[in-house]
Design goal:
- This protein is an alpha+beta fold.
- It has one domain.
- The chain has 7 helices and 4 strands; from the N terminus they run ααβββααβααα.
- Strands 1-2 form a two-stranded antiparallel sheet. Strands 3-4 form a two-stranded antiparallel sheet.
- Strand 1 and strand 2 form a beta hairpin.
- The longest helix is centred in the C-terminal third of the chain and has 15 residues.
- The chain is globular.
Length: 170
């Protein structure tokens, strides 16, 4: 994990004041099957065998909470859109921003989590927020770095320190 973190280009965040969520596309139906990005993530992450949920449901890994009710869930951009913007997405064209916002090609990019936890995370990087479920830290840190590398995004020094500290517990 340390080697992976070491691959991140380190740079101060930029363009903080010019971010607007409207610069990233909302959910769309990439394959034309009538199911938008939110629907696709929920379908991919639905479990049939969660304890206490005989009809199935979802597991929000950030806090280890299971629910049969998809309305309790948000689809989290693991690397939040605002964080991506500050880390290099401000230089992307609209098509690349839309692809990032709807990235179904890498399952770690978008995950179903409780709305409350997603909102507590907001647009923070790991220096400002980490999953309450510490058993998920290794996966979270690995996925964070993977998404940043996949999209050519930078990490600021505090973010790298937080990721390194999380990785030390793996």
């Amino acid at each position: 994990m340390k080697a992976l973190i070491g691959l991140l280009p380190v740079a101060a965040e930029t363009d903080q004041d010019s971010y607007s969520r409207d610069l990233f596309a909302g959910w769309f139906d990439a394959d034309g099957n009538g199911c938008d990005t939110r629907c696709e993530v929920l379908a991919a992450e639905r479990h049939d065998n969660l304890p206490g949920l005989p009809d199935g449901g979802w597991l929000s890994l950030y806090e280890g909470y299971s629910t049969p009710d998809e309305s309790e869930l948000d689809i989290d951009h693991l690397v939040p859109l605002a964080e991506a913007w500050r880390s290099g997405a401000s230089r992307w064209d609209p098509a690349r921003r839309a692809a990032f916002a709807n990235d179904l090609d890498a399952p770690e990019s978008l995950i179903a989590v409780t709305a409350a936890t997603n909102r507590s995370k907001s647009d923070s990087d790991p220096s400002g927020w980490q999953p309450p479920n510490t058993a998920h830290w290794c996966t979270y840190a690995t996925d964070w770095v993977t998404v940043k590398l996949r999209w050519g995004l930078t990490a600021d020094p505090a973010e790298v320190t937080a990721l390194t500290n999380m990785a030390a517990k793996c």
